[in-house]
Amino acid sequence: MEVDPFEARLEFLSLLGKLNASQHSIQKVGNFAMKNRKLHEDLYNCIIEELEQTKSLNTRMNIFYVLDSICHQSHKAGFHGYIDLIQKNLPRIIECVTPSGPKGNVNVAGTKKILELWRVRKLFSDSALDKVEKPLLSRELGADAPASFDTGFTKDDILKRMDEDRERHKRIREEIWIRPSDEDPGAEFLQYWDDVSDLDEVDYEDMEAENEKYLPGYPWELEFDRFLPSPAIFKLKPGLSVKLMESVFSDTAVITPSATTTTVFITIFRSRYSDGGTFDEI
């Protein structure tokens, strides 16, 4: 059954007017937008109008979370209407959510988290996200300033903001652990691997200490000392990643993607060489 555009617009504006920081409220607005995606241009204009007209920074942040909900659902449904419109107006949207001045700084941290989620999901081009994220980097420190001192917020405003931030962050924490269904099995491991620092002397000292606990009688010091004099060993991370990946997805090693460089190396060593193999085989 076709929905009358005028009635849909009125109902959508009513939902936006009742919007709060709860996941239920944000999801309800997002669901309505997706259910009536044929009217995506009209409904999107309603969101932008409400975003620009409201004076409440909390409401602006809630609307930004609505856009995140719509983007997430659009991505799952393979619908690009809303995403294309948002990308065209992304600088305008970010400017509304984080207006210049001390008060606008309170929305910077939350905005950056959403932008980072969009980057991970590849909803928008990196260039588009870089363009709006770069100005926020210099303002992030200002976002941590005491609100009552610099921004003129009252105590009630601060308490309300804390409650609403708590509600909004629930959604972010949930989405951090959601991986795309069509993602490559090794993508999460590679993401964590890229975040790990290169091997250094401290890592080798830790590995030696841990392996000493596992096999006290073995001359671990001699094995590890062979590598320490040469600085080249500390640049082996790219080469090691291939062996690590093979071990992660083999039947001989069970390693969590969040394991540190040291733990991964030790686990592989233990799983393959505890039966008498030598360190030279790695």
From TrEMBL:
Set out the biological process GO terms recorded for this chain's protein: positive regulation of DNA-templated transcription, elongation; positive regulation of transcription by RNA polymerase I
Q: Which top-rank group of organisms is this from?
A: Eukaryota
Q: Which InterPro entries match?
A: CID_dom (IPR006569), Ctk3 (IPR042326), Ctk3_C (IPR024637), Ctk3_N (IPR024638), ENTH_VHS (IPR008942)
Q: Where is the CID domain?
A: 4-140
One GO cellular-component annotation of the UniProt record comes to: CTDK-1 complex
Q: What is this protein called?
A: CID domain-containing protein
